[in-house]
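Case study 2.
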Amino acid sequence: MTHDKPDAIVVEGLTKGFETVAAVAGIAFRVRQGELFGFLGPNGAGKSTTINLLTGLARPDAGSIRLGGIDCTRRARAAQHLIGVVPDESNLYPELSGRDNLSFCGALYGLPKREREARAHELLEAFGLSDAAGRKFGGYSKGMKRRLTIAAGIIHRPQILFLDEPTTGLDVASARQLRQLIAELHRAGTTIFLTTHYIEEAERLCERIAFIVSGQIVRIDSIAQLLEPLQDRQRVRITSSAGLNDVPGGLNTAFPELDFRCPEPGVLQAETEAGVALRVGAIVRWLEEQGIEVLEARRLRPSLEEVFVRVTGIATDAMRQERERAGGDQ
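Prediction:
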């Protein structure tokens, strides 16, 4: 737990606009030392702008930033020695080998030659890249590139690591491996600020999450607190082959104790308070008697996805479409 630890990141009233667009609109939050903090929102919500402000790549129009106790509001790079940055697109050199890229990054952070070479060897080993150490970075797979980019971001052992959409565009296996690396860095005590538009990723990795929409934070809380209002609800998801685009007439009369909705074509969800019997078999039989073929009926556990929809009003299928456009399938 990190509740008794000091704040690693303190942001107050942070604002950044571009022409007529307020990319970040007066946001405020704190991240405790050793915490894995998630910034969750759709593309264009202000996630990358926030990271650019925190890491000194952009200057705020208003507000204050403290990193590791250092005021970075006017001296954007005052805490550069404390932070590591992994951008959403790799910033490494395609013509250099994996080893040489890491050594070069170590030199930029002022590590002596012997230390940076030893650290590069250590990270290549830890990230499963030893066999590719001498190969040019440009020839690496997407997953290998992301792993080396993270290794470059932590070569100087930063106290705070910023990860901008770390698994976007990766295949399932590479994304899973990368999440394991992130979890290991967190267990080792690194403070991690992670942006993502993958709801499942935020739920798996983060201790606390901020929902950001149109440059504004609409909710910050722990995973447990976000899910708490749903704990007293029972839910079931029923999938049909065809003919189920709206809640069938008569269903609410047959089961007045349940709330029904069709979140997408071919899918029916039933929900009720805890303590009220959710008779899944009876619902399936009623549907089949109406000529609706049921393919699957399964109970749902409370999910961050539902909380996100309730808080932001953004349908999760819109987030999924962004994921598909980015080329990821996680």
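The CA atoms of residues 65 and 154 lie 21 Å apart.
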